[in-house]
Amino acid sequence: MAGTTSTAPEAAVAREGDFRPAPGLVGLTGRLRVQVVGKAVGILEVKEGQARFLPGDGVAAATAIVDGEETVRALLRGRLNPVVAVLRGDLDLQGDLDFAIRAILGLHVAGPFAGEKAD
To answer: Average of pLDDT values for 5-34?
Structure first.
């Protein structure tokens, strides 16, 4: 896995409480914990076609472990295909794999965080 950058990934996505339309996530509800090399950076919360990124750690159906913050940003913005990320070793999924795969692929379809400015 590659190294990380110094900017917090949650700074590049929606603030707590800001649900974004995510057409690729219609019919899906749950939470996906996001970790950068074992350190929890937040929770992706999905509710029927809406998504938001919450800071911190919490209860989640699945966990996505990524190799660095740039990978987190690319996945959340739909710029990195999750299948490619897994094959390259940049992404590992644990827990409810069906939910995790559907959530990440749903972001790839139409990234609700695509317009977020990187800090």
So the answer is: 70
- CA 65/CA 48 separation, integer angstroms: 24
Q: 52-104: per-residue pLDDT in tens?
A: 989 877 899 999 999 998 998 888 777 888 889 999 999 999 999 999 989 98
DSSP 67: S
For residue 6, give the DSSP letter: S
Tens of pLDDT, residues 34-52: 999 878 889 999 998 899 9
At 77, which CATH number? Answer: 3.30.1050.10
In which domain, by residue range, is 15 found? Answer: 9-109
On whether residue 117 sits in a domain, the answer given is no
Q: How buried is residue 21: exposed, middle or buried, by Cβ count under 10 Å (0-12/13-18/19+)?
A: exposed
Model pLDDT, residue 64: 93
Q: How many CB atoms lie within 10 A of CB 111?
A: 21
What is the pTM for the complete model shown? 0.75
Q: Who contacts 27 (Cβ-Cβ below 8 Å, separation ≥6)? A: 48, 49
